[in-house]
Amino acid sequence: MAASDAPALEARGLTKRFGRRGLFGGGAPVTAVDRVTLGVSRGETLGIVGESGSGKSTIARMMVGLLAPDEGEVALAGAEIDVRSHKGRKVLRHRVQFVFQDPAGAFNPRRTIGEAIEAPLIGLLGRPRAERRERVAELLEQVGLRPDHAARFPHAFSGGQLQRVGIARALAAEPGIVALDEPVSALDVSVQAQILALLRKLREERGLTMIFVSHDLAVVEALCDRVAVMRRGRIIEEGPCREVLSKPCEGYTRALLDAARGVAA
Amino acid sequence: MGESGSGKSVAALSLTRLTASPPGVITAGAVALDGEDLLAAPFERLRAARGGRVAYVFQDPSTTLNPLMRVGDQIAEAVSAHRDAAGAKDRAKDLMAAVELPEPHRLQNAFPHELSGGQRQRVGIAIALADDPDVLVADEPTTALDATTQATVLKLFASLRKERGAALIFVSHDFGVIEELSERVAVMYAGEIVEEGPTQSVLAAPRHPYTARLLACAPKLGEPDRALDAIEGAPPPIDDRPKGCAFAPRCRLAIDDCRAGPIALADLGEGRAARCIRTEEVAHGRF
C-alpha cells in the first residue's frame, strides 16, 4: 500500500486485557478490547460509539499511545510504531494528541492554564520562551478565549471554558490528529454547541483528523464522517456515519438508536 | 428543565426545605401541599411529609445508597420510617418487584456495589415509593445512566405514575427526556422560570428566546445538518444578575426595555407563559 493511501492512524488487531492479577487476583482478566482493527483517514472525523464498558475509550487511548496494548500494533500513515517503547510513544505524541472527558480533572490545579498549554511546546517542540508566550496567546484566541486568561488557574474557569483549554493544549503540539474522549458529555447543551462549533471550525481551517469517542449518537451524527459501533470490545458495525445511523445493519446498533430516540420497545 | 446553575435542583429541593442550610436560606414564598404551607409548617409535620407525601429520587444512586447495607434492608428501613416495622421486609420485596428488579429474593441480599447503575437507581426509586407518596420528585435520575438503561428507567417512571397516580416532578437538562415523560414543562434560566406550558407546544413552538435558542443548538438524531447555532456567552453569575432580563446580554432580540427592569412572567393563553416582552418575534421564528 502506498503511503498516501494508508490511513493517517490505524489500529491493527489491538487487544487490551485488564488483569485481576496481584493481591486480590484470581479471576480471569477482562478483555476490554478484542483484536480491533480500525483506521482513520487524513482529514476525516471518525466516531467511536458504544455503551459504557464497550471498550471505546480504551481503543482510543491505545491509538494515541496513552495505554500500551497487549497485542497488536498502531500505524501512523502506514508506518508501524512500537507503542510499547518510550521512543515509539514519543513519535506518536508529536502527531496525535488527546482531549479528556472531564476537563476539571485533566489539569494540574496548581499550574496556570498558560503553563498547561505551554508544556507540549517545551516538551515536544522545544520552542524558545518568547515564541511560546506568543503561541499560547494565539491558541487561546483560536479556541475562543482571551490571551490574558493564560495567567489564571483552572478553578477560575467553567467546564466549557476548561474544555476549550483542553483543546488548545492538544493543538499546541501541532498534531495532525486529535482524539477526543467524550469531550462534550459533561457539558450543558448550549456549551456543547459552542464546543462542537469550535471543532467544526478547526476541522475546516486546519484539516484536522479527529477520533471522536462518544455515547451520544446525535452528537456523533452531527460531527462525524464515519462511525464504528463497539460492543464488548469488538467493532460490530462500521461505515459512513449517516448511512449507519439511518440504516443500521446490526440489531445492536438499532437498539442503541431506539434508546437514543426514546422509543425503546 | 434547565442547564447547570439555573436553579432547578435548588427549586426542587426547596419544596420540602431540603436545601442545605447554611448556606441556603429560603427568604420568600410558600410551598402548598393540599393547602398546607410546608415552609411554615412545624418540623414534625415537615418530617412526616418528607418521604411520606413528597419523596425524592436523586441523581446518583451510587452516592445516595449506604454501601455497607444490603439493598433490601435499605428499602425496608425507608418503609419502617413511615409505617409499621413488622411488615417492612415483605413490603420491601413487593417494592422491588414494582420497580422491576429481577429476582427480588436474591437481590434483596445484595450490596449496592453488586448492582448495575440501572438496578441501583431502581432501588432508589423503590425507597422513594416506600410510603406511596403523592408527589415524586426525581432530580436528574437518569443522567448517570447509559442510553439503553436510561430508556428502561424512564419507562418505569411513566408506568409508576400511571399505576399509582402520583404526581411527578422530573428535573432534567435533557429536552428529549422531558418530551418523553412530561405533560407540562417549566424552563429555568439564572434562577427564574422563563417559560412554562404544555410540553408539546413549548418544544414545538417556544416563545422565550432562551428556550428557542437552546432547542436550536441541541443535536437531533436523524438531522445531521442542523446548524447547531451556539448561544454566545454564559449565564450571569447568580450573585450578579442584571437588573432587567437575565438573558438579555445573550439575546439577539434584546432592546432597552428588556434591560430596564425585571420582566414579569406573562400569560400567553392556552396554559402558556413566558418571561419575555418579545414573544411575538420568537413566535415568528426571529430569534
Automatic annotation (TrEMBL), chain A:
Domain ABC transporter: 9-257
Gene Ontology molecular function: any one: ATP hydrolysis activity
Domain of life: Bacteria
SUPFAM superfamilies: P-loop containing nucleoside triphosphate hydrolases
Keywords: ATP-binding, Nucleotide-binding, Transport
Pfam family, one: ABC_tran
Entry keyword Transcription regulation: no
Keyword hit for Disulfide bond: no
InterPro entries noted in UniProt: AAA+_ATPase (IPR003593), ABC_transp_ATP-bind (IPR050319), ABC_transporter-like_ATP-bd (IPR003439), ABC_transporter-like_CS (IPR017871), P-loop_NTPase (IPR027417)
Gene Ontology biological process terms, A to Z: transmembrane transport
Similarity comment text for this entry: Belongs to the ABC transporter superfamily.
UniProt-recorded name of the protein: ABC transporter ATP-binding protein
